[in-house]
TrEMBL record:
<comment type="subunit">
    <text>Homohexamer.</text>
</comment>
<dbReference type="InterPro" id="IPR002678">
    <property type="entry name" value="DUF34/NIF3"/>
</dbReference>
<dbReference type="Pfam" id="PF01784">
    <property type="entry name" value="DUF34_NIF3"/>
</dbReference>
<feature type="binding site">
    <location>
        <position position="65"/>
    </location>
    <ligand>
        <name>a divalent metal cation</name>
    </ligand>
</feature>
<keyword id="KW-0479">Metal-binding</keyword>
<feature type="binding site">
    <location>
        <position position="104"/>
    </location>
    <ligand>
        <name>a divalent metal cation</name>
    </ligand>
</feature>
<comment type="similarity">
    <text>Belongs to the GTP cyclohydrolase I type 2/NIF3 family.</text>
</comment>
<feature type="binding site">
    <location>
        <position position="220"/>
    </location>
    <ligand>
        <name>a divalent metal cation</name>
    </ligand>
</feature>
<feature type="binding site">
    <location>
        <position position="224"/>
    </location>
    <ligand>
        <name>a divalent metal cation</name>
    </ligand>
</feature>
<protein>
    <recommendedName>
        <fullName>GTP cyclohydrolase 1 type 2 homolog</fullName>
    </recommendedName>
</protein>
<dbReference type="GO" id="GO:0046872">
    <property type="term" value="F:metal ion binding"/>
</dbReference>
<dbReference type="InterPro" id="IPR036069">
    <property type="entry name" value="DUF34/NIF3_sf"/>
</dbReference>
<dbReference type="GO" id="GO:0005737">
    <property type="term" value="C:cytoplasm"/>
</dbReference>
<feature type="binding site">
    <location>
        <position position="66"/>
    </location>
    <ligand>
        <name>a divalent metal cation</name>
    </ligand>
</feature>
Length: 256
């Protein structure tokens, strides 16, 4: 049986914790080093639904992209979110390990996975230090419509939105920042034909139009849910005895 400390040491060698932003809370959220792990579950975030399925599937370790909390926990009470999740996880013996901004800047992270799926060439980060985002050239130019539908096949379902959409315009250069990348709009404008990200706000959209930049807001969930793919491959090779479960999640947003 594999111990939790072996898995966390492996993850921290592949995606070091010192890569995370100073405000972040990546790493072991719940658990103890000597805990034995047989089943590993993956989820973007810890929620009541995810926790319930983890218990049904007898998950010992839950690996997430989003930490259970970033701001910290001052009390463990059953009626306050997310403190109630910490309490329930500890009671049920489910360990949680999160890889957040350290994974975002890693070649194993969701931005890199999307860039790989598109086959982007000559990639450079949008921001160099730390290396957030990816800017590259499509192997074959696509129309904006073709690129949008290609992305909708690659990514998880979410509420997709577009800004400055010109369906027949040719796209050669694409910028990507999974999750929330609106703060990089100024850096991308003039360098990419389309910027793929999530969590775009109203005034971000207006700025993008003014700069002549087309935005594909494919959702925070949509652009990050695939975070687990490369991690799972590495873990499966390093620990052949482990079993893996991708836990059911969906975007919290719906169109009415």
């Amino acid at each position: 049986m594999v111990k939790l400390k072996e898995i966390t040491a492996f993850l921290e060698s592949a995606v070091p914790l010192d890569l995370q932003d100073s405000w972040d809370n990546s790493g072991l959220q719940v658990g103890w080093e000597e805990q034995e792990v047989e089943v590993v579950g993956f989820a973007l975030s810890v929620s009541r639904t995810v926790l319930s399925e983890a218990l049904r599937e007898k998950v010992d370790l839950l690996i997430t992209h989003h930490p259970v909390t970033i701001s910290g926990v001052k009390s463990l009470v059953p009626f306050k979110y997310p403190n109630n999740l910490f309490l329930e996880l500890a009671k049920k013996g489910v360990a949680v390990y999160s890889l957040h901004t350290n994974l975002d800047v890693s070649p194993l992270g969701p931005t890199a996975i999307i860039a790989d799926e598109l086959g982007l060439l000559d990639r450079v980060p949008i921001v160099t230090s730390p290396p957030y985002g990816s800017l590259g050239t499509l192997p074959t130019p696509l129309s904006q419509r073709e690129l949008f539908f290609k992305l909708s096949e690659i990514l998880e379902k979410d509420v997709y939105r577009v800004v400055g959409f010109k369906p027949e315009n040719v796209v050669k250069k694409v910028a990507i920042c999974s999750g929330s990348g609106a703060s990089f709009i100024d850096l991308v404008a003039g360098k990419a034909d389309v910027y793929v990200t999530g969590d775009v706000k109203y005034h971000d959209a207006l700025k993008s139009i003014d700069l002549g930049l087309t935005l594909f807001d494919m959702g925070h969930f949509g652009t990050e849910r695939l975070f687990y793919r490369k991690l799972k491959e590495l873990l499966a090779k390093a620990f052949p005895s482990l079993k893996f479960k991708l836990l059911c999640e969906k975007s919290p947003f719906e169109v009415v």
